[in-house]
Amino acid sequence: MDLEKIELAAETIRNARYAVAFTGAGISVESGIPSFRGEDGLWQTHDPIFVEIEYFQKKPLASWSKIKEVFYDMLNDVEPNIAHINLAKMEKRSFVESVITQNIDSLHQKAGSKFVYELHGTTQTLSCTECSSEYDLSFADLNFLPPTCFVCKGILKPDMVFFNEPLPPFALKRSTDETMKADVFIIIGTNAEVYPANELPVKAKENGAKIIEINTNPTEFTEAITDIFLQGKAGEIMQKMGEILYL
Ligand code: APR
Questions:
Q1: Mean pLDDT of the chain
Q2: What DSSP string runs through 175-202?
Q3: Is 11 helix (H, G, I), strand (E, B) or coil?
């Protein structure tokens, strides 16, 4: 861990006019949630077809069985780690204005972040595919799959973005607005592969923002747009950042 670079990054954030964080699965790995594309990533062990919208519509039971296994049973009792917690403290101290996340685990909100924009939706709510009734997860009985709507008996779908589905308009609009306002853009734990989310860091750079990237490995962003690359685990680096900023 390069302490000098972490100090430089902390100073850059402290002096920022409008710092925004952009996170991916890597920030939740130290909470016990596997990433998607790392060596033991979810897409190494599971065929992602079950979260393609066409497959869900054709085979809702088969899709729901995998969704429950991968995104609910496994996420049952996960907690935010120090990276989520310190990011929330940075928002409280007005060092960071908001978090744009690709994650669907709600750990930023659980850690106390208030302004969180979930580009890929969330597993915490579901919607009826027939009448669009909305449900909090606590009202869906996942012991009987696929879960159905109390109103019309339609099949419920998690409010996470499936492949080949559009991103939620509100989250996309707010994330784009925040990106364009940022003079410091902090990328944590994403490998920059998924469009259109991966366009936002590039837009921030083009708009003159300073790019800080935290990742265990270099990514497509690192060479192309990153100004300060902090190589290492998000938890360890954000812990150090917290000490420097007296969080
Ligand atoms: N600390 C920091 N970075 C980490 C850590 C860690 N402890 N562990 C892994 N990483 C990095 C990996 O090096 C990788 O670059 O986090 C990144 C995780 O990449 P992905 O698994 O591809 O996750 P993400 O970039 O969020 O994927 C984007 O793809 O499948 C879709 O919708 C899904 O939101 C997801 C999107």
A1: 96
A2: HHHHHHH-SEEEEES--S-STTTTHHHH
A3: helix
Reported as a pLDDT band with limits 50, 70 and 90, residue 240 is very high
Ligand 1 site residues (CB inside 6 A) read: 24-26, 29-30, 35-38, 41, 102, 120, 189-191, 193-194, 214-217, 219, 233-234
pLDDT in tens, 104-141: 999 999 999 999 999 999 999 999 999 999 999 999 99
Regarding whether 201 and 111 lie in a shared domain, the answer is: yes
Catalytic residue check, 46:
no
Q: Is 105 helix (H, G, I), strand (E, B) or coil?
A: coil
Same domain, 23 and 139: no
| DSSP notation for 219-247 | -HHHHHT-SEEEES-HHHHHHHHHHHTT-
Share of the chain above pLDDT 90, in %: 95
What are the tokens at 68?
């429950």
Q: Which domain holds residue 131?
A: 34-77+123-160
Residue 1 has pLDDT above 90, yes or no: no
Mean pLDDT of 146-166: 97
Q: What are phi and psi of 24, to 5 degrees?
A: -135, -170
Same domain, yes or no: 113 and 209: yes
